[in-house]
Write a structure and sequence with these properties.
With 388 residues, the chain is an alpha/beta fold. Helix content is 50%, strand content 17%. The protein has helices at 38-41, 43-47, 61-64, 67-78, 94-106, 118-130, 204-222, 229-244, 246-251, 256-276, 280-292, 296-314, 316-325, 331-341, 350-361, 365-368, 375-385; strands spanning 2-4, 7-14, 21-28, 31-34, 52-58, 81-88, 111-116, 152-156, 168-173, 178-183, 191-194. α6 (118-130) links the parallel β7 and β8 (152-156). The longest helix is centred in the C-terminal third of the chain and has 21 residues, at 256-276. The radius of gyration is 20 Å and the shape is globular.
Length: 388
């Protein structure tokens, strides 16, 4: 019924590439509980978060899937007071989270419950932090939040972002013309409640794109300098679960068991990147999302195959392990698989490719990766992702 992870593991491991012995660690303070009717079953746990609760959702999805109604009923039964902030848009803006934080302070919220996909969950983290920290916008992404954040419960309604188990919040940054990440241990939720029934009304397209996002997390996490035996084990499991679900991707018809497998794979992949971070794939994908309006998971899927092919040329043994768990022989098979799943491709001019390449090449995520990525590599991956 549940998994409780409150781990801080330090381990000395031999660096794969340079033969050095480095101290590495794994940290996961989120209590993760999975199963049918988990929200109503954990009403006592919900009651422990205080009297006044701010509910953070999008405008429609949490209502359509029934998650919002379930949470409101639990709060009512507990005698808790709920205030609804349902103005989170896809790829939430800085204005959005400041408004949510204003309401949280106005209503004297004791805690935040996030219901939805990555956008509501990421917005909820920023709102929970800003409710306790009067920060100027220039300091929003500093990672220094002296008063911490309101305690949070996250209830995902998609299987992709893994935000319910990460210390990150990704916001649209108009000033920088991209998406920018907030990162702090204060942004970890206290409790994550996972019930696959909330995914049953998702369009197949959404299931596929969010699952590809989770796959990208697993693969990118394995190809970072912070990867270790603990994160690798979770990544292998998440990749295998993705592979097991490929027949359903091909028919675009998902059973409850498929959705439950993907939801847990997403959480595992989130646990990976919570400790490893991501790579250049995410940075490049942000340009597609910001400038072309392409869904985050779709953007990653357009780039992931080419990136893994590049990685296989440099790290054949490492990538061999990844493709083995995909039940494939070569990274090119993943490229072909993703081309079959992702049918929309952006039209890019040479000027756009040049601009996106300059943006991505300046990202710190490149330094986080085990794969050496040049500007020419980035340009080629963008060109490969474009409409032919």
């Amino acid at each position: 019924r549940f998994v409780k992870l409150v781990l801080m593991i330090d381990v000395c491991m031999e660096n794969r590439e340079k033969g050095r012995v480095n101290m590495q660690q794994y940290f996961m303070p989120v209590r993760v509980m999975c199963g049918e009717r988990i929200v109503s079953d954990q009403s006592r746990a919900v009651a422990s978060f205080g009297k006044r609760i701010l509910l953070v959702t999008g405008r429609n999805s949490a209502k359509i899937c029934g998650a919002l109604q379930d949470v409101e009923q639990v709060l009512k039964n507990n005698g808790q007071i709920s205030v609804l902030f349902d103005q989170v848009m896809s790829n939430p803006t800085i204005d959005c989270v400041y408004e949510g934080a204003r309401i949280a302070r106005q209503e004297q919220a004791d805690a935040v419950i996030a219901i939805g996909g990555g956008s509501p969950m990421d917005a909820a983290k920023a709102i929970a932090m800003l409710a306790k920290n009067d920060l100027a916008r220039a300091d929003l992404f500093s990672g220094h939040y002296p008063n911490g954040a309101l305690p949070m419960i996250h209830i995902p309604t998609t299987a992709g972002t893994g935000s319910e188990v990460t210390p990150y919040a990704i916001l649209t940054n108009e000033e920088q013309q991209t998406k920018t990440s907030m990162s702090s241990p204060d942004l970890f939720p206290k409790l994550a409640l996972l019930d696959a029934k909330y995914l049953e009304k998702l369009p197949a397209r959404s299931v596929i794109y969010t699952a590809v996002d989770a796959l990208s997390h697993s693969i990118e996490g394995m190809l970072t300098k912070k990867a270790n035996v603990f994160t690798d084990s979770m990544a292998y499991q998440a990749i295998s679960m993705f592979s097991e679900t490929l027949p359903a991707f091909e028919t675009r018809s998902f059973s409850y068991a498929d959705l439950e497998r993907l939801l847990r794979a997403s959480a595992l992949a989130g646990m990976v990147i919570a400790n490893t971070g991501t790579s250049v794939v995410h940075t490049m994908g942000y340009s597609f999302t910001y400038f072309k309006g392409i869904d985050h998971g779709c953007a990653n899927g357009l780039l992931l195959g080419s990136f893994l092919e590049l990685a296989q040329r440099q790290l054949p043994e490492r990538v061999g392990e990844i493709v083995h768990h995909l039940r494939m022989q070569h990274a090119k098979e993943l490229t072909a698989c993703l081309r079959g799943l992702i049918l929309e491709r952006p039209s890019l001019t040479e000027e756009e490719i040049d601009f996106y390449t300059r943006q991505a090449a300046s990202s710190k995520k490149i330094q986080n990766g085990l794969v050496a990525v040049s500007a020419d590599d980035i340009r080629r991956m963008f060109a490969d992702a474009a409409e032919r």
